[in-house]
Structures are given as structure tokens and as C-alpha cells.
Specification:
There is one protein chain. By secondary structure, the protein is of the alpha+beta class. The two termini are 32 Å apart. It is built from three helices and nine strands. It has one domain: Roll (Nuclear Transport Factor 2, Chain: A), CATH 3.10.450.360. A nine-stranded antiparallel beta sheet has the order 1-2-3-4-5-6-7-8-9, with helices on both faces.
């Protein structure tokens, strides 16, 4: 099982150099699947990673805090294959929402360095993994916070 998760994470996340695309370059099956899955999203940035297509977008939320509504936005991305099959969704989360085991791993194994970004990744089967970016490297953990693998950031991605 761990081998499947590791293989999927490598293949989907950073297996190939990302190439920015205009929406017109994205196959209609992919755009249709995205629109069906995320019907209220209008502003999307597209990239091609290997044979897959990644849509990056923001989701606006209104939460109640102390009886007042507070607006916020969350960065997300969704990866689709060329036929429109959704492969994974990644959602940016505060580092404080990572499992305690992930934060402990960073403290113990990375000299307590700061987690720059954190994400929750859910694949098409519902399997959850977590990503913690430390010093331009992504550390991937299973849903229990167990370390799986480390990847270098794609310098051309941003």
C-alpha cells in the first residue's frame, strides 16, 4: 500500500516539469470535468504536468467567528488526466492543521525549520496525504503523519 501511495505521489505531484497553458490549450474533456466538479469557479490557471492537467484556483469561504462572518479564500488545485478523470485535489492548509506527527517529524528531523506551506492532498479514491514544504523541498506524509518521501520544488513552477 505504501508503495502505491509513494508512486502516485511522485507521478502526480512533481514527476514532470510544469508547463503553463492557456485555457484554449486544455482538452474539452478536462475543462468539462473541472466545471462539473467545481461549478462556481471562474478564474483558473492551467498547467500541464507530464500527461496530466492541473487547474489552480481559489475557493472563497465565509466562516462565522464570534458571531460575525469572516471572508477568506483557500488555494486549491485539481489534477486531471487527458480524458477528464480527476486524479487528485490539493488544498492549502495552515501548518497548524497538519497531523501532529508531521509537525513532530519536522521538529526532530529538520532541526525545527519552519514549514513554509502545507497542503492536504486527496486522490480519486479518497486517500489523504499531507505535504509540508520546508526549504523549497516537499515532504509527503500519509494520513497518519508517517513520512513517505521528499521532493525538490520545481523551480519553474512559480
Amino acid at each position: 500500500m505504501k508503495a502505491i501511495i509513494i508512486t502516485t505521489a511522485v507521478a502526480l505531484c512533481f514527476g514532470a516539469k510544469a508547463q503553463k497553458l492557456k485555457e484554449a490549450q486544455v482538452p474539452s474533456a478536462v475543462k468539462e470535468a473541472f466545471a462539473k466538479q467545481f461549478p462556481n469557479i471562474k478564474d483558473t490557471d492551467w498547467e500541464k504536468e507530464g500527461q496530466n492537467y492541473e487547474a489552480e484556483f481559489e475557493v472563497k469561504r465565509v466562516n462565522m467567528e464570534n458571531g460575525k462572518s469572516v471572508k477568506s479564500s483557500v488555494e486549491k488545485s485539481a489534477v486531471f488526466d487527458a480524458t477528464g478523470q480527476m486524479l487528485q485535489v490539493e488544498e492549502e492548509i495552515p501548518a497548524s492543521q497538519l497531523p501532529a506527527a508531521v509537525r513532530d517529524y519536522v521538529t526532530k528531523n529538520l532541526g525545527g525549520k519552519k514549514i513554509a506551506e502545507a497542503a492536504k492532498i486527496t486522490d480519486a479514491k479518497g486517500t489523504v496525504t499531507y505535504e509540508a514544504e520546508v526549504n523549497k523541498e516537499d515532504y509527503i506524509f500519509d494520513s497518519g503523519g508517517n513520512f513517505l518521501l521528499k521532493e525538490k520544488e520545481d523551480k519553474d513552477k512559480d
